[in-house]
Every structure is written in C-alpha cells, then in structure tokens.
Amino acid sequence: xxxxxxxxxxxxxxxxxxxxxxxxxxxxxxxxxxxxxxxxxxxxxxxxxxxxxxxxxxxxxxxxxxxxxxxxxxxxxxxxxxxxxxxxxxxxxxxxxxxxxxxxxxxxxxxxxxxxxxxxxxxxxxxxxxxxxxxxxxxxxxxxxxxxxxxxxxxxxxxxxxxxxxxxxxxxxxxxxxxxxxxxxxxxxxxxxxxxxxxxxxxxxxx
Length: 207
Hints:
By secondary structure, this protein is mainly α. The chain has helices at 3-28, 33-38, 43-82, 86-109, 115-139, 145-164, 171-197, 201-206. The longest helix has 40 residues, at 43-82.
C-alpha cells in the first residue's frame, strides 16, 4: 500500500469520524446544546455546536487511526513471538478486556449503576465485533476472524479508556466516542484488504 492510499485512508476515516460524531450528537444532545440554540433559534450558536461535535468526531477518528496502526504492529509482533499460540493469546486477551470492561466501571460507579448495564455494554461490543470479524473472515480468509475480533474488542476498549475514566457523569460524550471509534475501526478493518488488492491508477494506465 503506497503513501497515496495511506493519505486517502486517513482523510476518509477523518471525515467519517466527523460525520458520525455529528450524527450521534443529534441523538444524545449533550447538556441540551442543540435545544439551547433552537429555542430561540440561534444560527451562529447552532453552527458552533455542530462544528464542535464534528471536531470531537475527528479527534476520536485520529485516536482510532493511531490504534489501528498500533494493532498492525502488535499483530506482527505477536505472530513473531507467540507463533502458533498467537490466536490463543488473543482469545485470552479478549476475555480479560471484556471482564475489565464490566468490573472496573461497575466498581467506580460504587453501586449507583446496576452491573447488568455494564454486562450488556460488554456483550453488545462483543456481538458487534463478532459480526464484523465474520465479515472480514468471509471477505479474506478464515484465520482472519480472531485477529479481527481482537482488534474490534481489545483496541476499541483501549481507545475508549479516556472516556471510561470520567465515568457515567459524561455518559453522552462516552457514547459519542465509542460509536465514532466503532465506525472508524470498522471502516479501516474492512477497507484494508481492498486497498491492498486494488491497483493504483498509475498501474491501471501502465496496463
């Protein structure tokens, strides 16, 4: 994959992050930010709020892209160190991260939030990651399933840690972040093999 494709991937993922961040903000309506500028109508204020959430989405997209390239390095490193045991190591790490996703936020909530909500959140992330991993395996090779699931679960949680640290006080921003991360991570994971397989424009002209 040449530098042109890398830049193209970066810009498209950045734009996707901004779009998802904006769309999700419409539904979570952080602290009534939109409502305050609709009643009465304030165009400048509304535009400022929209740009604010687009910027947040782009920021989360940058976090996602950093995590994605880190994943590519970790995956190669894991293969060289653990070799045939690498898939097993990834499964163990997935289980460990899902447990942490339930235990530590519940502990920090100090009983104010039922543990069932944390279990459902972890389960939803696992199911979504499973679906995306199945698609990745179907479009590439069967052995791509575990690495894809590993990336969607483990790296999404690692990228989401800053939002989790603020607890449920900032649940709206946590939702915006995790949904943006999931969208960007999904896009990068599913587009990677297409970028590798698609010929460059110069190569097409040469042919």
